[in-house]
Amino acid sequence: RAKGSVAENIAFYEPEMDETARARRQIANDLRHAIERNEFTLLYQPQHCIATGKVSGYEALLRWHHPTRGPVSPVEFIPVAEETGEIFRIGEWVMREACREARSWPKHLKVAVNLSAVQLLQNDFVAIVQNILVETGLSPLRLELEITETAIIADKLRALHFLRQIKTLGVSIAIDDFGTGYSSLDTLHSFPFDKIKIDKSFVLRSHESVEACAIIKAVLALGHSLNVPVLAEGVETIEQLDLLRDQGCDEAQGFYFGRPGGSPSQTADSQMMC
Ligand code: C2E
Ligand code: MG
Ligand code: MG
Ligand code: MG
């Protein structure tokens, strides 16, 4: 066979592709029962105000403990859930669980919930959020939804319509992983955001990459000129924190402050930090 021919590639990649496809199918299948089998948990990672050091809220991060595979990363199973549509049920479970949990926290603490791009396409999503807020008794002012740039660009008009409705509930919106997508300044200023989250890839490289540092500065300038607070994610060291503070960053989140962990209502000392 000729090198690089289709036949050669198929012969070479088939077993591996087959394994990947099989794993994906199994994940898709097993995801359908994960809620009923209590295989999901939420971990909470603190978000700190840089100036005061105080915790302002927690981001809810989904964990799946698969019965045979063990822990599966959301990076792996969320895309599968988006493909199969299972994300609607999972997203609703996450939202309800996070709101129920946050209800028992001190009142000044917010909870941030990640939204999948696909959830924006759900017609009754705003009604679902509203119902969950009523059901759990959480004030809408204490809920923040994290949406990626990519999710917004996929369908700008729809996203804008959705975000406006969400905002009228009193829920706030953060733009997640900022800097990794391709949103224009125009998109940014016409959308009603309450917070910009600088992607962790820039923060993690801030000391070795002039470019990463330049992007951080640019995002901070952008946020501040739009009057939107900026949070840096992935802060692991004091050096990164100092740099962000010097540049006027408002909030920070990362292993330096705390890894994602149990609900703060269950750990007395995290309440002490507030
Ligand atoms: P994300 O929303 O950008 O969340 C931040 C990720 O960075 C989390 O990974 C968190 O554990 C990790 N992280 C936090 N601090 C640090 C740090 O200092 N250094 C490093 N290297 N990493 C840090 P995780 O929990 O694995 O989640 C990955 C992604 O999966 C999330 O990125 C989010 O896009 C998605 N995800 C997680 N939970 C949910 C969910 O409930 N719904 C949806 N739709 N997506 C979710
Ligand atoms: Mg997030
Ligand atoms: Mg992020
Ligand atoms: Mg991310």
TrEMBL record:
Species this chain originates from: Novosphingobium guangzhouense
Protein name: Diguanylate cyclase
Domain EAL, residue spans: 24-274
